[in-house]
Amino acid sequence: MEFTVAIDTRTADLVRIDETLRQVDPAAQVDAQQGGLRIAGAFDASTLSDILRDAGCSVSQLQIQPVPSVCCGGCGG
Question: What is the pLDDT of residues 22-31, one digit of tens each?
Fold first, then answer.
């Protein structure tokens, strides 16, 4: 799944977030963008909230918004 997370990227520890995400999903990706983060990985919004909390970021479910999939299914995944 892919999500946008409304979080202050100036104060968030992006390295710690990346490392914590990859403990759950080694293929997870995180990118800073205007207004927060864009995160992709094999987890749902509730799990992502737990991951971010473990990484030192307190976020509510309202700050986590799913992004519609752009997967065409062509690779079989």
Answer: 999 999 999 9
Task: Determine what percent of the chain is predicted with pLDDT higher than 70.
Answer: 97
The reported pTM is 0.86
Which alpha helices (DSSP H) does the chain contain, by range?
Answer: 14-24, 45-54
Q: Is residue 73 part of a domain?
A: no
Residue 44: partners with Cβ closer than 8 Å, 6 or more residues away: 1
Degrees, nearest 5: CA angle 38-21-32: 25
Does some domain include residue 76?
Answer: no
Cβ atoms of 17 and 37 within 8 Å: the answer is: yes
Instruction: For residue 45, give the CATH number of its domain.
Output: 3.30.70.100
Q: Is the CB of residue 1 less than 8 Å from the CB of residue 13?
A: no
**Strand bridging mode 29-33 / 64-67:** unpaired
